[in-house]
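As promised in the previous annual report, we have extended the structural survey to additional targets. Below is the entry for CBPC6 carboxypeptidase.
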Amino acid sequence: SAAANLCPGAEQKVVFITARVHPGETPSSFVCQGIIEFLVSHHPIAKVLRDHLVFKIAPMLNPDGVYLGNYRCSLMGFDLNRHWANPSPWAHPTLHGVKQLIIDMYNNPKINLEFYIDIHAHSTMMNGFMYGNIFEDEERFQRQAVFPKLLCQNAEDFSYVSSVF
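The corresponding structure token record, generated without further manual editing, is:
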């Protein structure tokens, strides 16, 4: 039987994951692959996650740049991570498509985007860490800090103190 979150008309709680916007950040592909392999595994926690959440994953936001062996830029020489505000469907098609999907989810009352993770890698930082947003609303700020705190408690190679908000 289908999970409750996949039944017609049910509210979907979505976790959206993107990776590899910078072609040279190869560890992001390995992390994303590990997430996908875990989510499709027979692990009981993976099953619980699949039963309660819908995962939307774009594992490579810059396939042209990866193919060309670029370090940071797309085929056309753009650092795609600097074009989220107004992505062009012609010059930044992957960003445009992902942003449109996020806007469509936001405008759909049956979809609740619970969590968004954009996986990168860093040339000098050790361990895992996160960059987060700055919110004036204390509750929103504290809410975003929960996941990195839990990750730090459960993954020895994650550093909460290296995370920046």
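The CA atoms of residues 98 and 129 lie 23 Å apart. The first strand starts at residue 12 and ends at 19. These points will be discussed at the next consortium meeting with the crystallography subgroup.
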